[in-house]
């Protein structure tokens, strides 16, 4: 697992408008021919300076790691749980993060996908062997393209009971085709990490 670079929390509250790897990218990224080189080109943009870490920063729950910001005068310590999926060269492919959403006191799930993916075919989430569901990209920023979900009780229960989620999207290869890429995300430790995040 590659070490994530210091970044400000993508789920941390930033006012009223705020909503927001455990392993190398296995054969799932290699089957698409030029998938790995294309993904490697979508490198991460420079990110902002790291805020002061909180007391629980760095706690690990199997395949999830806590990222916490120190409390301020405006809010208590803010934590989210993260998993960073990288390709064979160590470039980030997907960042998964779960944290408490401001004002509604529910967890939110954020996926950050590479810039330059093909949006028309859609993006999808699958948990274990259940039927996949579309999860639209909200917007693309310097960090990547963002999928933002409020975790309702049904989806939350499936994530807690599952062992693997799969995020799927399409990329452009050098032949002008749009192969599909399926990125596995481990759910081991999800429930324990979430319980810590929601304290």
Report on this model:
- The chain is mainly beta and 199 residues long.
- It has a single domain, classed as Invasion associated locus B (IalB) protein (Immunoglobulin-like).
- It has three helices and eleven strands.
- The chain has helices at 35-41, 153-161, 190-197; strands at 60-61, 64-69, 78-86, 92-100, 107-113, 124-127, 133-134, 139-141, 144-150, 164-170, 180-186.
- It has a seven-stranded antiparallel beta sheet with strand order 1-2-3-4-5-9-8, covered by helices on one side. A four-stranded antiparallel beta sheet has the order 7-6-10-11, with no helix packed on it.
Average pLDDT reading? 78
- Percentage of helical residues? 10-25%
Determine the N-to-C terminus distance.
27 Å
- Report the uncertain regions: 1-47
Write down the Rg: 16 Å
CATH topology: Immunoglobulin-like
CATH C-level? Mainly Beta
Oligomer: single chain
Q: Strand portion, in percent?
A: 25-35%
Structure summary, number of beta strands: 11
CATH architecture level-2 label: Sandwich
Taking strands numbered 1, 2, ... along the chain, how are they ordered across the largest sheet? 1-2-3-4-5-9-8
- How many helices? 3
Features:
single chain; 199 residues; mainly beta
How is this structure best summarized?
This protein is mostly beta strands. It is built from three helices and eleven strands, in the order αβββββββββαββα.
Write the layout of secondary structure elements.
Elements (H helix, E strand, L loop, with lengths): L34 H7 L18 E2 L2 E6 L8 E9 L5 E9 L6 E7 L10 E4 L5 E2 L4 E3 L2 E7 L2 H9 L2 E7 L9 E7 L3 H8 L2
Antiparallel strand pairs: 1-2, 2-3, 3-4, 4-5, 5-9, 6-7, 6-10, 8-9, 10-11
């Amino acid at each position: 697992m590659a070490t994530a670079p210091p970044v400000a929390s993508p789920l941390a509250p930033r006012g009223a408008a705020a909503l927001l790897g455990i392993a190398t990218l296995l054969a799932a990224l290699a089957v698409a021919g030029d998938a790995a080189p294309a993904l490697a080109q979508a490198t991460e943009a420079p990110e902002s300076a790291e805020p002061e870490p909180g007391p629980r920063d760095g706690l690990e729950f199997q395949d999830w790691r806590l990222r916490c910001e120190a409390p301020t005068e405006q809010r208590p310590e803010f934590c989210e749980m993260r998993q960073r999926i990288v390709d064979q060269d160590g470039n980030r492919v997907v960042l998964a993060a779960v944290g408490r959403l401001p004002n509604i006191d529910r967890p939110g799930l954020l996926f950050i996908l590479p810039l330059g993916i093909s949006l028309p075919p859609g993006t999808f989430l699958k948990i274990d062997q259940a039927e996949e569901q579309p999860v639209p990209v909200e917007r693309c920023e310097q960090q990547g393209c963002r999928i933002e979900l409020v975790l309702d009780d049904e989806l939350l229960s499936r994530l807690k009971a599952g062992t693997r989620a799969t995020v799927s999207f399409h990329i452009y290869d050098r032949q002008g085709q749009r192969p599909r890429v399926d990125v596995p995300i481990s759910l081991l430790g999800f429930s324990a990490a979430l319980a810590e995040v929601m304290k």
